[in-house]
Design brief:
The chain contains 3 helices and no strands. With 112 residues, the protein is mainly alpha-helical. It has one domain. The two termini are 29 Å apart.
């Protein structure tokens, strides 16, 4: 019974993950444009700082609720698939030279 439920859960999460990835690749560009405008509004000296403070409180509240839901779902024994996004930053010093050679960066691999 447990294996059947795990299989059903895997099918559901795979489908939802495919939908999220598709939306992220299509709608993500417009959300980035919106966030650019939000950043400009947050740069207004007094009003922008207050709005950013309110925005941060709202985002913290939303992610706290999501985290609590995830916690209780995990307590029930359901472990949804999660995605870890990793970015590599290649830094330059003040003279503009790169700290690591390109051969080192291209040799980096992700372990499965």
């Amino acid at each position: 019974m447990i294996r059947v439920l795990e299989g059903i859960w895997d099918v559901i999460t795979t489908g939802i993950n495919a939908i999220i990835e598709t939306l992220d690749s299509t709608v993500g560009w417009f959300l980035s444009l919106f966030s650019g405008f939000a950043i400009l509004i947050f740069l207004i000296p007094v009003l922008g700082r207050f709005l950013k403070w309110v925005w941060n409180i709202a985002i913290t509240a939303v992610w706290s609720v999501v985290g609590l839901l995830d916690f209780f779902i995990c307590l029930a024994g359901v472990k949804p698939e999660k995605k870890l996004r990793v970015s590599t930053l290649i830094l330059e010093d003040s003279s503009g030279s790169v700290d690591s050679s390109s051969s080192v960066v291209t040799s980096l691999t992700i372990c499965d």
